[in-house]
Amino acid sequence: MHLCFIFTFLLQSGDALLPLVINTWGFKSASETAWSALKAGGSVLDAVEKGCSRCEAEQCDGSVGFGGSPDEKGETTLDAMIMNGNTMEVGAVGDLRRIKNAIGVARAVMERTDHTLLVGESASQFAENMGFIAEDLTTNQSVNIYTEWLKDSCQPNYRKNVSPDPSKYCGPYKPGSQLKKRRRLIDIHAHDTIGMIVIGQNGQIAAGTSTNGAKHKLPGRVGDSPVAGAGSYCDSTGGGAAGTGDGDIMMRFLPSYLAVELMRTGTEPSIACKTAISRIKIHYPEFFGALICANTTGHYGAACNRVPGFSTFPFVVYNSQTNTPLLQSVDCF
After folding, report:
1. How does strand 312-319 pair with strand 20-24?
2. What residue range is the signal peptide (predicted)?
3. What's the CATH code, domain 3-139+185-331?
4. Facing residues of 314 across strands?
5. 24 an active-site residue?
6. Is 228 helix (H, G, I), strand (E, B) or coil?
7. CA gap 175, 178 in Å, rounded
8. Best CA proximity match to 65, nearest among 38, 91, 36, 27
9. Which residues of the chain are under the pLDDT cut of 50?
10. Can you say which residues are annotated as belonging to the binding site for substrate?
11. β-sheet with 78-84: strand ranges across
């Protein structure tokens, strides 16, 4: 049976069973960990935190956790967010240094402060004060990625409308006419984010994201992952959504928020995802990105933008129907 037919069948066949775990990409171990947390009596927040933490520890595809995506200075920094769909509380961290468990720090921001988002060195100091262990996030792999980038004249990069010293193409930069710049090719192995939605047996929802951001980003850059409504969003009266891809573009449209609001009005999850992606495509037809969505009954869907080298988007679902972390995919449009 063709996978697309199976996907459609699961979406349309009867009432989906709760609880539900769904996450971006083929990160099955994250789904298994989240599901085990639920079955052990943990909350949906516990499940999201543990599932995303598993990816952080495993360095999922090099795009989550320590030792990946070094910035222009060669440092790995982390972004993460967690959201409670019952209370609408959010905790998030951006540009986090030295702490491997970014999603855990995000939850600490939510539960130990009245704030929503902490960033940079101050976020790292907060984490250490809360008992998180300070560790070097650099690995041999991240050093090699950074070294090869330097050898290649710091190309590709995220600079525009600037001029570097001609003898030092890596900078320092100043305002001016951009020298010839290599186009960044889409790398489906630089996934940017794990996004996860967990719905409990009684319909309570939590969502979260974790990432080490864009490879060779400018120091201090924070992407969509820790921004509520962009990287992920949930409301136990509507549903949950989480995105992955080019965060600098996606965060401008709050696609996760839009998708949840559409589901609140009765829009089917896959249509809600597609509508949110379509809104971005109007302005950025070649952007790289995808979205997963799930409503309060546990029905789910996904959508992605079709670009060269990226025609299908994988995601993982774990519920009582699958009884295992099931890898699924959706055709991009």
Report:
1. antiparallel
2. 1-16
3. 3.60.20.30
4. 329
5. no
6. strand
7. 9
8. 27
9. 1-14
10. 221-224, 244-247
11. 117-119, 90-96, 78-84, 205-211, 194-199, 20-24, 312-319, 326-331
Report field, pTM of the whole predicted structure over 0.85: yes
**E-strand stretches of 261-311:** 289-295, 300-304
The amino acid sitting at 203 is G
Residue 60 corresponds to which tokens in the numbers above? 């999922």
The pair of three-digit structure tokens given for residue 272, joined into one six-digit string? 């809600």
Type of residue found at 153? S
Pairing of strands 205-211, 194-199: antiparallel
Q: How far is CA 55 from CA 6, 42, 58, 195, 226, in A?
A: 27, 18, 5, 10, 16
Determine the pLDDT at residue 247: 96
Q: Among 270, 281, 275, 324, which residue's Cα sits nearest to residue 306?
A: 281
Q: How far apart are the first and last CA of the chain?
A: 22
pLDDT digits (tens, 9 = 90+) for 227-279: 999 999 999 999 999 999 999 999 999 999 999 999 999 999 999 999 999 99
Binding residues: 221-224, 244-247
For residue 192, give the nearest of 178, 213, 176, 172 by alpha carbon: 213
* Cβ proximity of 237 and 112 under 8 Å: no
154: nearest Cα among 218, 91, 220, 82:
218
Q: Tokens representing 202?
A: 């009684």
**Out of 24, 33, 193, 211, which one is annotated catalytic?**
193
User: Of the candidates 302, 270, 309, 303, which has an alpha carbon nearest to the alpha carbon of residue 286?
Assistant: 309
CA 286: distance to chain centroid?
A: 19
pLDDT 10s digits, 114-125: 999 999 999 999
